[in-house]
Amino acid sequence: MSTTIDVKQSLDRHLRDLHLPTVRECYEPSARRAEAETLSYERYLLELIEREAEDRRQRRVERLLHQSKLPLEKDLASLDLKRLPAKVARQITTLAEGSFVERRENVLAFGQPGSGKSHSVCALGQELIRRSQGRHKVFFSSCALMVQELLIAKRDLKLSRLIKRLGGYGVLILDDLGYVQHSREEMEVLFTLLAERYERGSVMITSNLPFSKWEAIFKDPMTTAAAIDRLVHHSVILELNVPSYRLEAAKKARRKART
């Protein structure tokens, strides 16, 4: 009896040291089942390792979703694909498979406020993490907040360090580019970020402004052209030419209140 206890204690200690929590949790019931079903030692060990590996993948996915800063309520299940143009719905379905990340392509979503741009790219970001089981790393930020972080890093002489850290993400999502009225200094740090990611990592951008109005963002025609050129060179463009979802919902709510 004491020998059995000593073995269990030693095994638990070693499994803790090796950071195998799932194996430590389930090796005893699995051993009893293996004995009852006369499984081979190899089959028993394989099942334990498979459960540990699957749990690790799930923990990694949850960790990366948390680190991504994505709004998790904006997922693919809650995105009404039927409301979007058929071409965009097909594009989103294809993009969710993730091959564009391997090719370091960009995704540019255009449309009026409330058309579903942000929801679409956020849903894609989550799918990339989940379907790749944590192989794809994604980071989400509003464009305004990203610009401020870049400016602070530049002031503190840490801009290259921040850009290098962001380079660790296979996909960088910048939301609401069109709402930011950049000063020249803000434009410069944003352009630096986009230029550094060119052909090195994917960027997903939403904007309520078409390319023809981007000079209002970057201030300078040559810089505007250079930014567009880098983004469009390897890209998929989503044109969400649909009415505002929020406006439609508000109208439905008012009609319902009257009845």
What's the tally of helices?
A: 12
Rg estimate, integer Å? 24 Å
Supply the CATH superfamily name of the largest domain: P-loop containing nucleotide triphosphate hydrolases
Number of domains: 2
What kind of oligomer do you see?
single chain
How are strands sequenced across the largest beta sheet?
2-3-4-1-5
Low-pLDDT parts are none
Proportion of residues in extended strands: 5-15%
State the shape.
elongated
CATH class of the largest domain: Alpha Beta
CATH structural architecture of the largest domain? 3-Layer(aba) Sandwich
- The number of distinct β-strands equals 5
Query: What class, by secondary structure content?
Result: alpha/beta
Summarize the helix and strand pattern as letters: HHHHHEHEHHEHEHHEH
On the 0-100 scale, what is the average pLDDT? 89
Task: Walk me through this protein's architecture.
The chain has 259 residues and is α/β, with parallel strands linked by helices. It has 2 domains: 2-67, no CATH class; 69-248, 3-Layer(aba) Sandwich (Rossmann fold), CATH 3.40.50.300. Helix content is 60%, strand content 11%. It contains 12 helices and 5 strands. It has helices at 2-17, 21-36, 41-68, 86-95, 99-102, 117-131, 143-155, 159-166, 184-197, 215-218, 221-233, 245-258; strands at residues 106-111, 138-142, 171-175, 202-207, 235-240. A 5-stranded parallel beta sheet has the order 2-3-4-1-5. Helix 7 crosses helix 9 (184-197). The chain is elongated, with a radius of gyration of 24 Å. The model has no long low-confidence stretch (mean pLDDT 89).
